[in-house]
């Protein structure tokens, strides 16, 4: 595979990862868990709130890009749900700190990034074909 195709493929793979992570955040926006105590930990035996994820994209040493997925580190948001079995005495639970507007922007950016890299790959293929036709 050519260097152009390798770099474009890594960009497409990163865009797919961004959509996967964003979709996970959106799918878990309503999942809740127990509120952390004063020490910042959830009581034993209680579920934790979903940890919002982010994609970190860096340049690869061999060209192209690579991604890692990490949590944002944002604390959960207290939300009322007195019916939850793990609600605190005030009826509050922890909800993930997912910003749906940001997730929509992430998905749009990933879509454009994927499309741009697919066009780069197509152009590289066309250039190679033209070169081979010229040599023939």
Give the overall shape, derived from the CA principal axes. elongated
As a percent range, the share of strand residues is: 15-25%
Based on secondary structure, the structural category is alpha+beta
Mean pLDDT: 93
Sheet with most strands: strand arrangement: 1-2
Order of helices and strands: HEEEEH
How much is the radius of gyration in Å?
Answer: 22 Å
Main beta-sheet annotation: 2 strands, antiparallel
How would you characterize this protein structure?
This protein is an alpha+beta fold and 136 residues long. The chain is 45% helix and 16% strand. It has helices spanning 3-27, 100-135, and strands spanning 53-59, 65-71, 77-80, 92-95. The chain has a two-stranded antiparallel ribbon with strand order 1-2. A two-stranded antiparallel sheet has the order 3-4. A hairpin with a 5-residue loop joins strand 1 (53-59) and strand 2. The longest helix has 36 residues, at 100-135. The protein is elongated and about 80 Å long. It starts with a helix and ends with a helix. The model has no long low-confidence stretch (mean pLDDT 93).
Summarize, please.
The chain contains two helices and four strands.
Secondary structure elements and pairings:
Blueprint: H1 3-27, E1 53-59, E2 65-71, E3 77-80, E4 92-95, H2 100-135
Antiparallel strand pairs: 1-2, 3-4
Helix pairs in contact: 1-2
Question: Features of this protein?
Answer:
136 residues, alpha+beta, two-stranded antiparallel sheet, two-stranded antiparallel ribbon, 4 strands, 45% helix
């Amino acid at each position: 595979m050519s260097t152009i195709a390798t770099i474009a493929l890594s960009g497409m793979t990163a865009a797919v990862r961004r959509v996967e992570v964003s979709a996970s955040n959106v799918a878990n926006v309503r999942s809740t868990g127990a509120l952390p105590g004063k020490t910042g930990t959830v009581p034993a035996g209680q579920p934790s709130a979903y940890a919002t994820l982010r994609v970190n994209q860096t340049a690869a040493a061999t060209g192209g890009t690579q991604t890692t997925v990490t949590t944002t580190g944002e604390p959960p948001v207290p939300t009322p749900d007195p019916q939850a079995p793990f609600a605190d005495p005030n009826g509050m639970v922890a909800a993930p700190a997912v910003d749906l507007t940001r997730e929509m922007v992430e998905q749009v950016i990933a879509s454009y990034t994927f499309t741009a890299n697919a066009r780069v790959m197509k152009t590289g293929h066309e250039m190679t074909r033209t070169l081979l036709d010229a040599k023939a």
